[in-house]
Specification:
Length: 130
């Protein structure tokens, strides 16, 4: 007989791809040849904090698609790709980390899988969607 509690177990390594698609569908595209993240729709007009989350989630999708080698990214690389200056970017990352929406590993940042639902709720409130 299967233990009903086993339905509660998740792997920290497995990303919920359906949830990731739901969150990113109308906001982000991933360039197939490079793995670069492109904002679409209202995404470029959203607050920088939200853009940072979208960018990091886009990298999560790119990694899941094997388009990039590493999901986590250094703030200096994000500055260039997002066009956000270092001080404000680092301030946003610090706040996102305190809110447990991003993790820092070796000076690089990513959205942990456990935070996908919280990010979805935050984005839904900001974009008026899902």
């Amino acid at each position: 007989m299967e233990n009903p509690l086993e339905s509660l177990i998740v792997s920290g390594e497995e990303v919920d791809k359906n949830l990731l698609v739901t969150v990113l569908a109308d906001l982000v595209r991933v360039e197939k040849s490079t793995g670069e993240i492109r904002f679409i729709g209202v995404a470029p007009k959203l607050p920088k904090r939200i853009q940072i989350l979208l960018f990091l989630l886009g990298r999560k999708a790119a990694k899941a698609l094997d388009l990039i080698e590493e999901e986590a990214i250094a703030p200096s690389e994000m500055e260039v790709k997002l066009g956000v200056k270092g001080g404000p970017l680092r301030g946003q990352l610090f706040q996102l980390k305190n809110d447990r929406l991003v993790q820092s590993e070796g000076g690089k940042y990513r959205v942990p899988n456990y935070a996908l639902e919280a990010v979805k709720e935050l984005l839904g409130a900001r974009t008026g969607g899902k």
